[in-house]
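User: Predict the complex with thymidine-5'-triphosphate.
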Amino acid sequence: MSQPPLILASASPRRRELLAGLGVTFDVITAQVTEHEDSTTDPRVMVAHNAALKADWVAARHPQSWVLGADTTVFIDGHALNKPADAAEARAMLRRLSGRSHTVFTGIALRNESAGVRIDEGVASEVTMQVLDEAIIESYLAKVHTLDKAGGYGIQDHGELIVANYTGSLTNIIGLPVDETKQILTRCGLLKS
Ligand SMILES: Cc1cn([C@H]2C[C@H](O)[C@@H](COP(=O)(O)OP(=O)(O)OP(=O)(O)O)O2)c(=O)[nH]c1=O
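Assistant: Here is the predicted structure with thymidine-5'-triphosphate placed in the model:
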């Protein structure tokens, strides 16, 4: 049996599910890279850079394959909130997000080394949080594993407890904007339109 031509360069189970939902077959290879996490860098630049790092790492080892990388971050007050290091940092992030709006950026990078294809795109969504008092924050953190999620929350995991509303792509917030990804894969002949 021949290998699927597409590789998802991500350890994220959410990205795997979202990509599978498009009906494309793919392998998963996690890129071993150090993400750029400077909280003051322009978030669009940062997610694009990190998505490209992940895709390039895998593409260099699989030059015949199509490789998709992605990176998601939460941006508020001129600062990026990446994955919290521990529960204290997750708590601090939720306090900062409380009662306010923030932007979630996801960068996606598609590569095919042998065909010389490099496609980079960034998508933004807005999320407004409910006012989060300490009791809500504690009960949310007790229910949801947040250390693997940018901003210390997952809109898909009991989001009703903390999110007031959002605009833009929901799947972009969860880690892979499916409409934009579908367009790119279709353009490259990896999906039928
Ligand atoms: C804001 C938000 C982020 N996230 C997740 C998406 C990403 O998996 C994660 C941000 O971390 P990333 O560094 O983008 O991705 P990752 O470490 O999970 O996987 P990899 O680097 O191997 O691709 O936060 C949610 O699941 N829900 C949310 O509401």
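Residues 125 and 169 are 6 Å apart (CA to CA).
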